[in-house]
Write a structure and sequence with these properties.
Layout: E1 4-6, E2 15-17, E3 25-29, E4 34-39, E5 45-50, E6 54-55, E7 63-68, E8 78-85, E9 91-96, E10 108-109, E11 114-123, E12 129-135, E13 139-143, H1 150-158, E14 161-165, E15 171-180, E16 183-193, E17 200-206, E18 216-219, E19 225-228, E20 235-240
Antiparallel strand pairs: 1-2, 3-4, 4-5, 6-8, 7-8, 8-9, 9-10, 11-12, 12-13, 13-16, 14-15, 15-16, 17-20, 18-19
């Protein structure tokens, strides 16, 4: 996280803007619900806090999204941690300032476990980007809830494609989002089994929302350019298993 630094003649708790963007705040979260803000220059702990009833979901990792960086003064930076409630296992969202560690809003507790979440790459007038959360009943919600913009509605309706891979069964599913009875609902479009007997899914790595996809070009003899287009929707899945065809000695 960039934008601020600790001044030379300031106390450790006081921050000033880093105009050269060389010093970072490294945000990390543990499975037990404790977050740390570390100074990238020397590793000092700028802030730390233990989140009540916040934990890692059973079948997925804690997700961290930057909704607004520290480059948009006077608005504070804003981030969100997406995890689970220790008591119920349902989804839990924690909003905080990733520069200072200050809590910005009350945590949001969902009624169902979270199936998938992601950042919506549409910026509001106050430089804030919303996130979507898909629960186990395929109900989709957008946070912050008061961020009602026609551009976000159009993106969710026309451009938002969601996928999920179950690490236990190895089944991948893709969804489109539709408006049903004035509420967002995900509808399954495709499914595929990625594993066979004895295999398990280790990691799933999609393209990040703000990453650019460049197409490689090769200049031909007649000065035309032959482009090798790269699909921006590709997802890398790592699967581990045993080779049954190889006999042991």
């Amino acid at each position: 996280m960039s934008g601020l630094r600790i001044g030379k003649y300031f106390h450790k708790e006081q921050l000033e803007r880093d105009y050269f963007n060389t010093q970072k705040i490294i945000v990390s979260a543990t499975e037990s619900g404790k977050i740390f803000g570390l100074d990238s220059r020397n590793g000092d702990v700028v802030y730390s806090s233990l989140l009540k009833n916040f934990a890692k979901p059973k079948d997925r990792s804690i997700q961290f999204y930057i909704q607004r960086t520290g480059a948009h003064a006077p608005f504070p930076s804003q981030s969100v941690l997406v995890g689970a409630d220790k008591r119920t296992g349902n989804g839990l969202l924690y909003f905080f300032d990733c520069i200072t560690g200050e809590q910005l809003d009350q945590p949001v507790t969902l009624n169902r476990p979270i199936l998938q979440s992601g950042l919506i790459p549409v910026m509001s007038s106050n430089h804030l980007e919303a996130i979507f959360v898909l629960d186990s009943d395929l109900n989709l919600s957008i946070y912050p809830e008061n961020l009602d913009m026609p551009e976000i509605t159009a993106f969710v309706k026309d451009s938002l494609h969601i996928f999920d891979v179950c690490s236990k069964t190895g089944v991948a599913r893709g969804y489109r989002v539709k408006l049903v009875n004035k509420a967002w609902k995900a509808v399954e479009v495709w499914s595929a089994t990625l594993t066979t007997a004895g295999e398990a899914v280790l990691t799933v790595s999609p393209k990040r929302p703000h990453d650019f996809v460049h197409s490689q070009g090769r200049v031909l003899a007649d000065r035309r350019v032959l482009y090798k287009y790269i699909n921006p929707n590709l997802v890398a899945v790592t699967v581990q298993g045993t080779d049954e065809g190889k006999k042991r000695e």
